[in-house]
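Incident log, structure service

09:12 report received: a user says their structure output differs between two submissions of the same chain.
09:20 pulled the input from the user's history:
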Amino acid sequence: MIVVLAVVAVNVMLIWSMSSASSPLTPQPAQASASTSAAANPNRPEILVVHIAFHSSEERDRLANQWGAEEANTLGGYITVYTDRAGYNKMLAAGLQVTIDEQTTQLVNNPNLFGKGSPNSFYGGFKTVEEMQTYLDQEVAAYPNLAEKVSIGQSWCATHTCTLPNNYNGYNLFVLHITNLSIPGPKPVYWFDAGIHAREIAVPEVAMRYIDYLLSNYNSDADAHWLVDYHDIWVMPMVNPDGHHIVEAGGGGNSPYYQRKNANNTNGCTVWPPSAGSQFGTDNNRNFDFKWNCCGGSSSAPCDQTYHGTGGASDPETVAVENKVRSLIPDQRGPNDPDPAPITTTGVYQNMHSPAALNLYPWGFVGSAAPNGAELANIGQHMSAANAYPAGNSYQACQAPNCLYGVDGDAFDWAYGELGAAAFTTELGGNFFVPLSYVNNTLWPANRGALIYEAKVARTP
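09:34 re-ran on a clean worker, output below:
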């Protein structure tokens, strides 16, 4: 029996109009089948949002990697894929059971529904990479005793020739280190990175609001004051600046490109402009050393959305994150998969995405519980609990293979698998391209408590 899945992005315009800041998007069934709506409308927009049904977890993972599934809940029995007419026809030719999500397809092809930005803004006020880096400089200038901007490496295009969408020289990779520099350590480490998938543009904005909460409320909020005084908090709003630079170029910033991966252009994929289903680059969140290309949770095809690169940590953005986090959080777990991290383990790692409205915890490469599975699940459930203190985000807490799809070479499995750190991926609700007001009024308020809680438990999670 095939269960009908909920797609996270359906009915988003209704949700955006609501005043609640804590509820994730309510899943809704597909609006029309391919056999009816597609045939009735031969002038299909460039991007199609489709659902492909599956009958087993093995088939789900195979289809997810073959077709580049998006980060949308799969508990109902199908994956969500952004594709084009040619990709849709290939799916039908392959005998797949495919339906078109008409409502979400309309939304992603009509940016006017979200409201265009001014000529000097990106997608109605979202920060460009350059503006993010300026923001970090401004925070350091305003709070010199509480924050420092740290360079941890360079993006792909900083050391390679990149000509798309224009000639540019790449970026340095920056993290904001937040702590009261006058209070000596050692202090427990909380690491929070965002923007590893470039088109998930709400995620860096949430990271920057977390920075602003900690620093601007230092003298007025007891939690912020305590966290900054007695913790080492590292926030990286943009892991993949080259990819974000490509996203910004679509339609002059008003119709962003769906670039997910970095800008590595040496692996044989020459697709331009990037489509929702095919693009050059390496998926940094399939490129980490731990369980790289182990278990069917990534792709070996360079144009695929989940292309894992030529080897574990083959790309510079991945290397930069791994090296910096290793220098902050010691290796506290044994070398074998069944080895648990000891009760004295310290450090929390958060890797944020969108738009599946989930709190994910290890393992991601397999659906069985990690050695510290009960403890990881407990933290994930606290992050989700609306009645917790601080209040959670009301998202579902789960392992990716049990509610999304299997992944390998991902960031949070690496942080737990190699270091033993309590590691999580929060998937924001909504869609890739939501209005900035939705970030401010819904996503940030909904996730603020979970981020505060993670930092609070970083000493011995």
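09:41 both user submissions now match this output. Likely a transient worker issue. Closing.
09:42 reviewer note: The chain has 14 helices and twelve strands. Residues 63 and 69 are 8 Å apart (CA to CA).
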